[in-house]
Write a structure and sequence with these properties.
Layout lengths: L3 E6 L19 E4 L2 H9 L2 E3 L18
Antiparallel strand pairs: 1-2, 1-3
Amino acid sequence: MPETLTVKPAPKRQVRDPRTGEHLPKTGMIVLRTPYWLRRLKDGDVVKVKTTTRKKTTKRTTTKEQ
């Protein structure tokens, strides 16, 4: 699985996704960790979005014995 990161534009910046040509959403987007995005991070054009991982929960099922 390719390594990814979640980024969003820095305040007062607009950054295009090189694959689609569309502007990066203000809420952020998961992108492949490529030299392009690492350069955007270094230059301050985008910032990393802290991702929260949900804890996987299992639902317990109970059976009634009759």
